[in-house]
TrEMBL record:
Pfam families: OMP_b-brl_2 (PF13568). Residues 33-203 form the Outer membrane protein beta-barrel domain. It comes from the Bacteria. This is Outer membrane protein beta-barrel domain-containing protein. Keywords: Signal. SUPFAM superfamilies: OMPA-like (SSF56925). It comes from Tenacibaculum gallaicum. Residues 1-19 form the signal peptide.
Amino acid sequence: MLKKLLLFGILVVSLSSQAQREKILKLPSFDKPLFHYGFYLGANNNDYKISYAPSDFDDAEIEVESSIGFNVGLIADLRLHNNINLRFEPGLMSNTKTLRFKHIPGADNINTREVGATYLHLPLLLKLSTNRLNNMRPYVIGGLSYDHNFSSNERNSDDNFAGEFRTTTNNFMYEVGIGVDFYLSYFKFSPSIRGVFAINNEIKYDNKPSSQWTDPINFLGTRGVFLHLAFE
């Protein structure tokens, strides 16, 4: 993910330099319509924030190993003001995380769980932009999202005693980010870096009390950073 962030920085600096040199405004009327649409692609690196609860497992330690996932979706943009836009960006966000329960001895099938997550990501965001600077326009963005996890296994009666780590299906997150709009000849390209943070506890506790997998956990929530490339 560090390489992706570095490439993002190089891309932004390169496009910014080009945009600042440009004297001819491209897409001069792009921001005038009340509505416009687009799509986005991206990559994410999500893991879990875990806080521990008092339990019979005082030495509980859970290690989260993240992997690179993908984001894809659509954009609907409503202009509220010259510098303020309301955006709805429905899409899919997929990622896999590996949980290693360091306090549980035994083989990987006992102390390791691979947790896949495919979310229907429904964020409602407020975008605050500066005035246009030639062919570029920096902005900050933030808001809330509802996230439906298709891979949660929440309704599965099997739990960790049968090898299934379960999470909640219905989740809420807040999202913040910074980016730059670049006005090109035929479309607007808007790269941004964003963070997502779970509001609710996503863990589905095991059926039996004193589970060595879930009893030590007070809160488990998604957190992550993703590269968001919008084409409008």
